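Ticket #4471: structure export looks truncated?
Reporter: QA, pipeline team
Priority: medium

Steps to reproduce: submit the single chain below to the structure queue and open the exported record.
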Amino acid sequence: MFTGIVAAIGRIVRVETLGEGLRLTVDAGGLDLGDVAIGDSIAIQGACMTVVALEQRCFTVEVSRESLDRTVGLSREADVNLEKALRLSDRLGGHLVTGHVDGLAEVVRFDQVGESWRLEVRVPPALGRYFAYKGSATIDGVSLTVNSVRDEPEGTVIGINLIPHTMQVTTLCRLGPGASVNLEVDLIARYLERMVGELRSRG
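Actual output as written to the record:
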């Protein structure tokens, strides 16, 4: 479990083929690996990965073909958002994030508005129902507040305002129209849908 508060920007520095998947070596950047052990979880661009090796300032993970098919940003050398798994004693600065990417969203707008930036992404139709005004969304591992929701034939477009701090400490500053991003819906919304569906079926 994670919070969506990015701890550091790291970089994938080595990509090796591993069967149908990949083995990635990640330079942890400013992420403290002092309390990380083999078997621990680290979110990379919002996708929960298991540490299989540690080497000085780097760690290694193995990514299955299933994960590669459902995510972006894990198949080549690139900067990535990093977050260690949440401890029970940690502050929940963002929202509860599982690190299980639900799908890919497309950036349809990304420009500066005053001192902030306006980010709009088109969510796949099957996921649009999970987003609400002032609700939570996780994009590339970053916990964000939804400021607008607009349903369109091609899918739901959610709007988000990014403050300068978020732009400085995450990889979101590298986005542009047409880019794909990893998307995770709010965990509470997912459980609510399941429970409401059960109640209706018993109706």
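Status: closed, not a bug. The export was complete when the record was re-opened. Leaving a note from the reviewer for reference: Residues 12 and 78 are 5 Å apart (CA to CA).
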